[in-house]
Amino acid sequence: MKKILSGLAASCGRARGKARIIRGIKDLKKFKKGDILVAKITDPTMVQMMAKASAIVCDIGGMTSHPAIVSREMGIPCIVGTKSATKKLKNGVKVLVDGDKGEVYLVR
């Protein structure tokens, strides 16, 4: 596996899945259970997708940001503050999100 991103480990755990770049609620139909939610930042309109996600990765955010708090409540891994997740990750690429280390790996 190749490390492709790192950020702040906001919620512990590890998850594998397909990355889905989410820009807002309009992307709800393309988001499937088990996908990795990748966004600049999440907001309350995305909670329905967050509930289906196996992990969350965001460009911005800190320990008290929306994705960090909601992911801890839901018990799913979360990494925030990557600066470039929405640019480096492509839709459908398989990744491993390590919420303990704050790292995202490309899975082959």
Question: Summary?
Answer:
With 108 residues, this protein is α/β, with parallel strands linked by helices. The chain is 18% helix and 34% strand.
Question: Top keywords for this entry?
Answer:
3 helices, 8-stranded mixed sheet, 108 residues, 18% helix, alpha/beta
Question: Gap between N and C termini, in Å?
Answer: 7 Å
Strand portion: 25-35%
The share of residues in helices is 10-25%
> What's the alpha carbon Rg, rounded to whole Å?
12 Å
Structure description:
The chain is α/β, with parallel strands linked by helices and 108 residues long. It is built from three helices and eight strands. It has helices at 47-52, 66-74, 85-88; strands at residues 2-6, 8-11, 14-21, 36-39, 55-58, 78-80, 94-98, 103-106. It has an eight-stranded mixed β-sheet with strand order 1-8-7-3-4-5-6-2. The longest helix has 9 residues, at 66-74.
Give the topology, please.
Layout (H helix, E strand, L loop, with lengths): L1 E5 L1 E4 L2 E8 L14 E4 L7 H6 L2 E4 L7 H9 L3 E3 L4 H4 L5 E5 L4 E4 L2
Parallel strand pairs: 3-4, 4-5, 5-6
Antiparallel strand pairs: 1-8, 2-6, 3-7, 7-8
